[in-house]
Amino acid sequence: xxxxxxxxxxxxxxxxxxxxxxxxxxxxxEHLAAKDRMEFVTWVKQPFPAAALIAFIxxxxxxxxLGMEEIIEDYIPSAGQKAAALLVNKIFFFGLGLAAVYxxxxxxxxxx
Length: 112
Hints:
3 helical TM bundles of succinate and fumarate reductases
């Protein structure tokens, strides 16, 4: 399989779990838009919402990283700049995703 085809499939596969997760979070808007912080924290401390949040974060950040890779590969002509931008893209989305997952884990298992 060519690299472009693999990238195309990965982008589509990464978006599939986002569809049911979107509808799940749509039904949970009362908790997501909580009036106070503790109501949201209580909701995240439950096993299913925490797992759904982590799954959403992982899939969304991976999907975003792949999408940005396409943009970088299409619009940056210089090979050196393209390689640097792709590296920064991977580090950015990995770091942000890791921080978001860490925040959910701290809320779920921490003493908040």
